[in-house]
Design brief:
A hairpin with a 2-residue loop joins strand 1 and strand 2. The protein is mainly alpha-helical. The C terminus is likely disordered. Helix 3 crosses helix 5.
């Protein structure tokens, strides 16, 4: 599941320290043009928001989100941030965490029994899990699932707690192909 959410939400998660300034710059450029608004929140920022703050948008909440993001990036490992994120994120109306979505949407299995394909489908719902469902995915969701699975090929694994992030296998936010 960590690989799927990184492929979907934050491919540079293992490289940045809470803020992806490249993504922020691209989103700001896109948003100046008008149309659909793109965000640039990292998994760390989303974790800070989900755990410590309230829903909604305001400059005060965004400022506090930055503060808490700095703190969790300083004191928590990337593995702990991912664990908290996967256990606190909304994955459907009243469904929070990977174990809950596995139970409700995948016939009572545990998160450990999810396939890479299942994980990609769940990650595909994350822009709006109240609108998009992994239980009854639309054609659009299946297309997103396929794109996420393609990106997952470039992220072969998520390091376990205590393992170093090897800079020789990470390049530009997406892992290099193993030789």
């Amino acid at each position: 599941m960590p690989v799927a959410v990184m492929a979907s939400e934050d491919q540079r998660f293992l490289l940045h320290h809470g803020f992806d300034f490249d993504a922020i710059q691209k989103a700001a450029k896109h948003n100046r043009k008008g149309g659909t608004v793109h965000g640039a929140s990292t998994i760390s920022q989303q974790t800070a928001k989900n755990v410590f703050l309230w829903p909604g948008r305001s400059y005060l909440r965004k400022g506090l989100e930055m503060y808490f993001t700095f703190l969790i990036e300083t004191f928590w490992s990337k593995q702990r941030i991912m664990e908290v994120y996967l256990n606190s994120i909304e994955m459907g109306n009243g469904i929070y965490g990977v174990d809950a979505v596995a139970e409700y949407h995948f016939d009572g299995i545990t998160s450990h029994d999810l396939t890479r394909s299942d994980c990609a489908l769940i990650a595909a719902t994350l822009p709006n899990p109240r609108k998009y469902s992994s239980k009854e995915p639309s054609y659009y969701m299946r297309q997103r699932q396929q794109r996420i699975q393609q990106q997952m090929r470039f992220i072969p694994s998520f390091p376990k707690e205590g393992e170093d992030i090897n800079p020789n296998t990470v390049s530009g936010g997406v892992y290099k192909q193993k030789k």
